[in-house]
Amino acid sequence: MPDAVILSGGGRYADPWHPFAETSALLAAIVREAGFTVEVDDDPDAALAALGDDVRLVVVNAGDPGDGPVPSQAAAAASALDRALDRGIGLLAMHAAAASLRAYPAYERLLGGRWVRDVSWHPPFGEARVHLVGGHAVAEGLADFTVLDERYTDLRRLGGIEPIAEHVEGGMRHPLVWAREVGRSRLVYDALGHDARSYDSAAHRELIAGALRWLAAVDAP
């Protein structure tokens, strides 16, 4: 059985801007290199509802589900996610994941920040300068780097974060990658990862690998 699940943007979590199938496949390769067995599921609600006790890592690479009807399995999915977070798992949330899984309060509590419609935004896609800050273990041994990507800006903060990377826009620094620990569970949010060009960056892949090492060290019972 896989011990890592990638929730990929299909169905109500798809959008016209993000090639989730492509980026989820690239993420799966990085997750396997980190020593996990991984399954990619493009129905995040069903995947959460089926979340087993053997899963140690959940990766969210999915878009905004909008305001449509909540699927019938949402209650079961919420309960399964609550149980997983209580026992202790690692959660890696990538890019559009800041707008995803809106039906799941436990996810939002762990995430620590949200894309807010008509408030959050990003400059045009292009070369992004990533400034590492704070000395977190996720970025140990890494240096500032550039990557072709989007830089999410003015996300709404929902709790304290441990900053790992920032970007500069309008003369101000904005969080780009951060970590959180809530109870037994750990989260890394990485606002990068718009499309495959983001994963062409060796430095970005190394940053994700560092996040996976830290997330794998969750002290589950």
Give structural attributes.
two-stranded antiparallel ribbon; nine-stranded mixed β-sheet; Rossmann fold; about 25% helix; globular; 6 helices; alpha/beta; about 220 residues
**Major β-sheet, in short?**
9 strands, mixed
Identify the strand order in the major beta sheet.
2-1-3-4-11-10-9-6-7
Structural class: alpha/beta
Tell me the total number of β-strands.
11
Principal-axes geometry comes out as: globular
Oligomer: single chain
- Which segments are poorly predicted (pLDDT under 50) over 5 or more consecutive residues? none
Number of helical elements = 6
Tell me the domain tally: 1
CATH architecture type: 3-Layer(aba) Sandwich
Task: Give a verbal description of the structure.
With 221 residues, the protein is an alpha/beta fold. It has one domain (4-216): 3-Layer(aba) Sandwich (Rossmann fold). Helices cover 27% and strands 27% of the residues. It contains 6 helices and 11 strands. The strands form 2 sheets. Strands 2-1-3-4-11-10-9-6-7 form a 9-stranded mixed beta sheet. It has a two-stranded antiparallel sheet with strand order 5-8. Strand 9 (162-169) and strand 10 form a beta hairpin. The chain is globular. The two termini are 20 Å apart.
Secondary structure elements and pairings:
Elements: E1 4-8, H1 20-33, E2 38-41, H2 44-49, E3 57-61, H3 74-87, E4 90-94, H4 105-111, E5 113-114, E6 126-132, E7 145-149, E8 156-157, E9 162-169, E10 172-182, E11 185-190, H5 196-199, H6 202-216
Parallel strand pairs: 1-2, 1-3, 3-4, 4-11
Antiparallel strand pairs: 5-8, 6-7, 6-9, 9-10, 10-11
